């Protein structure tokens, strides 16, 4: 996607976007998933064949030993469906510099036949879970993720609570909200309070934090917008809501995105658009000198407006406080 417009917007605000110190490695282990959500920028689903191999895992692990990266964030697809998921987690846990392991979980996988072991395994390995939960009401969740997904998600969250998640130190359970449509997320703090009240009152569920993440105009969500003739209007909304205060906290500054093949990108969104780092050929993570990542210019596209609209958006949720959000009417 053309990044000229976004680059020009940065320049107009006296900003540039370059990588800072890499603190997080986000590994996308593949596109295999038990769900096919309408907002999915990865186009993941049950029939996808892309999945990481043991050889690629070992090469990534070897590279990590040469770094002081302290957080590994594992995503997919449904990461737990990768055949070597357990091996990956156990090997990462052996690395003394890795302080935080994150599994981006769709919740339903925890109840899927053949994956009943996953929840207890994650708890035993003290893996932080970031779980997709688009709403605390069934109609919105089922519309976005499929019929019956809300009830399965509730059961999975109750299971995680029984295992100690959101109750015991070191067992962190965070939830992710994506809008069910072509609008920006509401205030993260207020929505988190709503989630905590409704999930506790109706289902006796506890969690730690809620992240609000903007739907990106790529993948399955972009295809739906394009089909309905709404893609241009959504892009205009993102551009009108550009917030220069969000740029400093963008995840592309401190996160290195690695694909299931080992190729490197500035973020998971660039990865899905195949905006690979290149020399003469595509670069793999094991080709990199860890000391030479800082200061590199980030590869830009028009989808970058999605991460800088309103309160900003990242894999850790909103980037700025509500009082720092201009153009409230655009949000």
CATH architecture: Alpha-Beta Barrel
User: Helical amount among residues, as a percent range?
Assistant: 25-40%
Structural shape: globular
Question: Can you give the mean pLDDT?
Answer: 91
Give the tally of structural domains: 1
Structural write-up:
By secondary structure, the protein is α/β, with parallel strands linked by helices. It has a single domain, classed as Alpha-Beta Barrel (TIM Barrel), CATH 3.20.20. 30% of the residues lie in helices and 11% in strands. The protein is built from ten helices and eight strands. It has helices spanning 4-12, 54-64, 85-93, 118-124, 138-145, 149-162, 188-203, 219-227, 231-240, 268-272, and strands at 24-28, 71-75, 100-105, 128-132, 173-177, 209-212, 255-258, 264-265. It has an eight-stranded mixed beta sheet with strand order 6-5-4-3-2-1-7-8. The longest helix is centred in the middle third of the chain and has 16 residues, at 188-203. The mean pLDDT is 91.
What's the SSE blueprint?
Blueprint: H1 4-12, E1 24-28, H2 54-64, E2 71-75, H3 85-93, E3 100-105, H4 118-124, E4 128-132, H5 138-145, H6 149-162, E5 173-177, H7 188-203, E6 209-212, H8 219-227, H9 231-240, E7 255-258, E8 264-265, H10 268-272
Parallel strand pairs: 1-2, 1-7, 2-3, 3-4, 4-5, 5-6
Antiparallel strand pairs: 7-8
